[in-house]
């Protein structure tokens, strides 16, 4: 299975360096100089099938890399938006681990319960459009029926049920997180 290790951001400086949006807990290992990584391009963007890391550095906040296939700023800027992938032998994630590709496309509903207090889908909130990495926790991105994107902290209290077979995720959002769903906590005071 191919998983995203990093997304390539804007070019940095003049010698082909790019800023990376890291999607792995081991960037130094996965993106070590000499690593040859498959590339996934957005629809319609021309891209090489793979990139070879020649340099990786961390400035304390952000990661930067250079590739053998892009030796100047113009070539580096053409890489923007590409995703660096890695092949993994892992067939199934741990019970509480989820990948963005597994969650994208799931229908997001509010958490409701049936007569036996079992969780069931409530109001349709939208569709999961991705998973955004964060410092404290990741955020589940939900596109509402009116086209807005809501970032839901990806913690068990707010995302208690994920059912891949049923194609749904049940959310227990606080009031005000979704525009048409309840009032904010402060409004109740």
Report on this structure.
It is built from three helices and twelve strands. It is mainly beta and 189 residues long. The strands form two sheets. Strands 1-2-5-4-3-6 form a six-stranded antiparallel barrel. The longest helix is centred in the middle third of the chain and has 5 residues, at 73-77. The chain is elongated and about 65 Å long. The termini are far apart. 20% of the residues are buried. The mean pLDDT is 86.
List keywords for this structure.
mainly beta; six-stranded antiparallel beta barrel; 12 strands; 3 helices; elongated; 189 residues; single chain
Question: What general form does the structure show?
Answer: elongated
Low-confidence stretches: none
Main sheet makeup? 6 strands, antiparallel, barrel
Strand order of the largest sheet: 1-2-5-4-3-6
Total strands: the figure is 12
Total number of helices: 3
Radius of gyration: 20 Å
Class by alpha and beta content: mainly beta
Question: In whole angstroms, how far apart are the ends?
Answer: 49 Å
Tell me roughly what share of residues is in helical segments. under 10%
Mean residue pLDDT: 86
Could you tell me the strand content as a percent range? Answer: 35-45%
Order of helices and strands: EEHEEEHEHEEEEEE
């Amino acid at each position: 299975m191919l998983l995203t290790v990093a997304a390539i951001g804007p070019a940095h400086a003049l010698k082909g360096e790019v800023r990376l949006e890291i999607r792995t807990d081991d960037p130094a290992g996965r993106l070590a100089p000499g690593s040859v990584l498959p590339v996934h391009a957005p629809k319609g963007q021309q891209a090489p099938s793979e990139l070879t890391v020649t340099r990786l550095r961390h400035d304390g906040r952000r990661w930067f890399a250079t590739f053998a296939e892009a030796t100047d700023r113009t070539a580096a800027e053409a890489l923007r938006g590409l995703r660096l992938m890695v092949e993994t032998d892992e067939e199934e994630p741990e019970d509480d681990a989820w990948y963005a590709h597994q969650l994208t496309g799931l229908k997001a509903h509010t958490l409701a319960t049936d007569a036996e207090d079992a969780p069931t889908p409530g109001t349709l909130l939208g569709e999961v459009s991705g998973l955004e990495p964060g410092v404290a926790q990741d955020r589940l991105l939900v596109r509402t029926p009116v086209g807005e994107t809501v970032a839901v902290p990806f913690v068990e209290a707010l995302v208690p049920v994920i059912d891949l077979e049923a194609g749904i995720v049940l959310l227990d959002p606080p009031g005000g997180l979704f525009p048409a769903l309840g009032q904010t906590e402060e409004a109740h005071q």
